Amino acid sequence: MRRTRSRSPIQQAKxxxxxxxxxxxxxxxxxxxxxxxxxxxxxNLRVLDQREAQLAALEAEREALxxxxxxxxPDHADPDxxxxxxRSQLNVVHPNEVVIKLED
Length: 104
What we know:
This protein is mainly alpha-helical. It is built from three helices and no strands. It comes from Qipengyuania citrea.
């Protein structure tokens, strides 16, 4: 028969303390160097600034497109916008207009 060796309460307390210390060190390491830690903070702020600038540009483009759609509403279309689209997409010109082609 084999005798199991039990640990003394002092050894058990030391193991518990060392395990808790290791867990705290791992959590501290993640708090400093993790993906949302202190070292990544400046990178996250830089990415946030980029995204805010990108969002502002997209919102401005959206407002311009919204205005353009409003000008093309079938009930009350803007004559200038309709003329511009006819000239650009269908190559339609008035008889007294002169067309000058520019190389791209």
